[in-house]
Amino acid sequence: MKGINKFFDINMVLMTLFSSLETIRDEKKIELIYDIEATMPKELKGNPEALLHLFTQILTFVFQNSNKKEIVFSLLAPKDFLYEESISFEIRETGISKEKIVSFLETRLSKNLGLLDGEIISNDEKPSGIYIRIPFKLNELGKRRYYRLPAMTICPAAL
Fold first, then answer.
1. Dihedral angle at the C-alpha atoms of 13, 78, 95, 27, nearest 10 degrees?
2. Does 6-158 carry CATH code 3.30.2380.10?
3. How confident is the model at residue 17 (pLDDT cuts 50, 70, 90)?
4. What phi and psi, each to the nearest 5 degrees, are found at residue 94?
5. H/E segment holding residue 32
6. CB contact set of 143 (below 8 Å; sequence gap of 6+)
7. d(CA 65, CA 139)
8. 54: closest CA among 90, 123, 108?
9. Long-range interactions of 65-68: CB distance < 8 A, separation 24+
């Protein structure tokens, strides 16, 4: 990864992103939904400012050009995240033509993707989506998002 390389909380980036897009979301009456896989590490090492800028550009483009009222922004991490892995970011079914998306990705995002060593993933099966992959490092292997249900105690009288 080029430039700034520090540890950051992905949740803080997403919260800042959500706040920064509030005006356009309200104006267009679009609901932004984050779909984050449970294997996504909370803390990553990389360039949070460039990542936030990239996400802001992508979502602003989608909000301005889509007629959808619900946009799902997915963050996908490998099941067995090692020290350095690529994370995929997807916005499926934008309702925007493939030509317009390709033009946007090539003209407006190539520089920011280069700052993050990211790449555009082509997905011919789902042409109206935006798919990118960016490599990140973990701070600690133990800082993963694992969700466990609370332990249940069974009352002997209930048996």
1. -20
2. no
3. very high
4. -80, -20
5. strand 31-36
6. 41, 42, 43
7. 37
8. 108
9. 65/94, 65/96, 65/100, 66/30, 66/94, 66/95, 66/96, 67/95, 68/30, 68/93, 68/94, 68/95
> For the chain, which residues make up each domain, given as ranges?
6-158
Backbone dihedral angles phi then psi of residue 98, each to the nearest 5 degrees: -60, -40
Nearest to 4 by CA among 57, 41, 42, 53: 53
* Residue whose C-alpha is closest to residue 4's, from 149, 154, 146, 136: 136
Q: How confident is the model at residue 148 (pLDDT cuts 50, 70, 90)?
A: very low
Nearest partner of 78 among 131, 38, 28, judged by Cα = 38
Distance CA 62, CA 87 (A): 20
Given this model, what pLDDT does residue 56 score?
A: 95
